[in-house]
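Re: duplicated header lines in exported structure tokens

Our pipeline writes sequence and tokens for each protein into one text file. With two proteins the header for the second block appears twice in some exports. Here is an export where it did not happen, for reference. First protein block:
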Amino acid sequence: MDTGAGNSSINLMIGGEAGQGLATVGQILAKSLVRAGARA
């Protein structure tokens, strides 16, 4: 969502049971976002 002030935000929720690799999903997502040029 663009607020018009050069800021944007994305909310993403990932759920699952313990042991289903959520940490791995988070790492893949973070790496993908960095490669796409996303920054905090």
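Second protein block, exported in the same file:
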Amino acid sequence: MSERTKSFIINTFLLILFYFFIGKEFGIKTIYAAFILSPMVGILEKLCPIKQSLMQ
């Protein structure tokens, strides 16, 4: 499973959860950001692939 897919699944779960806790305004803004973030991560994975861990 790619990082893009993992990010999308986690974001979807959290968006649904916090939509009920924080409210509609938060939900709309965050949904927009999440749908922009996932494709951008996919694009960056292709443009700048990371071959090794950044924590070395």
